[in-house]
Amino acid sequence: MTEADASLARGALAVPPIRPEYMQDTVAGQNFGVVQKPLTVWQKLGNQAWLRKALILAGIALAWELYARALDNPLLVPPFAVTVEAFWDGMANGDILQKVVTSVQLLLRGYAIGLALAMVFTTLAMMSRLGSDLLDTLTAAFNPLPAIALFPLALIWFGLGDLSIIFVLVHSVLWAVALNTHSGFRSVSSTLRMVGRNYGLTGVRFVAKILVPAAFPSILTGLKVGWAFAWRTLIAAELVFGVSTGKGGLGWYINENKNMLNIPAVFAGLFTVILIGLVVENLIFRTVEAATVRKWGMQQ
Fold first, then answer.
1. What band does 109 get if pLDDT is binned at 50, 70 and 90?
2. pLDDT (tens digit, 9 = 90+) per residue, 193-224?
3. According to DSSP H, which parts of 128-189 are helical?
4. How many helices (H) and strands (E) does the chain have?
5. Cβ-based neighbour number of residue 222 at 10 Å
6. Radius of gyration of the chain from Cα atoms?
7. Of 38, 133, 184, 231, which has fewest CB within 10 angstroms of its CB?
8. Mind giving me the DSSP string for 260-273?
């Protein structure tokens, strides 16, 4: 090979070969790299949480109705339709509504006092070791104690009235909220704590501006648990001890109709308790959650 041929060969290797462009028909119709794809109607409906929950409730109601019809014993389990009819009758004559107002008023008073005491205990616990030891000891001692077990003592100490029920409600709320709040405070990262210290925050200001926002998911869980405990304690107290407020609430309504063997009204009272629980969870707590932890990006 001459020097000219070698130079020509080197030049050919330096220039890459040009390949003719072509397109495969099997790839042309594919939607590769699609960033946004329109959802189908079923997918849009499936993304609605309220619709999924409504279907679950409808399934429970249907199962209730079918089981009651198959059992055919209204003294044991009245059909769902009969229970709803008794509920509307109780709402129309104002009986259930009056009992709901009485129960909710008592519940809110005990719940508010329990929350206030829980915040005092948890604030003291974060400000000093003695406060932390005090909260740990009291929580370990009194949290396992059923609130309804204290009701006989409350009747001795406070008599037959609102104070007795409020006392046991405070007990049922206080330790659950304090335990969750204190756990949330302890889980706050050291970075956030140092940020608060660098800004000169101490004591109550440090708790309010650093710990409470950072631990709010745990606090919200404690609020939910405390509400559930207080609601169950109230109904149980009225069921066991009857009228202690002079008017009686939902628990007394259930107990009274049970004694008269008005079983549809008993189930209507239970149905009212369930409805209130659904409203509080899905309207109040969900709204608070959306405005706080979800907005702050602290929960998926």
1. very high
2. 888 888 888 777 888 888 888 888 888 888 99
3. 129-142, 151-158, 162-186
4. 16, 0
5. 25
6. 32
7. 38
8. TT-HHHHHHHHHHH
Q: What is the pTM of this model?
A: 0.76
Residue 3 Cα to chain centre, angstroms: 86
Nearest CA among 209, 284, 229, 217 for reference residue 114: 229
Give the Cα separation of 187 and 270 in Å (integer).
38
Q: Is 103 exposed, middle or buried (0-12, 13-18, 19+ CB in 10 A)?
A: buried
185 Cβ contact partners less than 8 Å away, ≥ 6 residues apart: 122, 125, 126, 207, 211, 215, 218
Amino acid at 61: A
The tokens for 250 are 């939902």
Instruction: Determine the pLDDT at residue 62.
Output: 92
Place of tokens 């370990």: 140
pLDDT value at residue 31:
55
- In which residue are the tokens 């206080």 written? 174
Cα 65 to Cα 245: distance, rounded to the nearest angstrom: 35
Q: Own/partner pairs for 269-278, CB < 8 Å, 24+ apart?
A: 269/90, 269/96, 269/99, 271/83, 271/84, 271/87, 272/87, 272/90, 272/96, 272/99, 272/100, 273/231, 273/235, 276/100, 276/104, 276/231, 277/228, 277/231
Structure tokens at 181: 């709040």
Taking the C-alpha atoms of residue 141 and residue 152, their distance in angstroms, rounded to an integer, is 19
CA dihedral 153, 154, 155, 161 (to 10 degrees): 180
pLDDT, one tens digit per residue, over 140-192 is 888 888 888 888 888 888 877 788 888 999 999 999 999 998 888 888 888 88
- Tokens representing residue 92 in the block: 């129309």
Residue 299 is given by DSSP the state -
16 phi/psi in degrees, rounded to 5: -70, 150
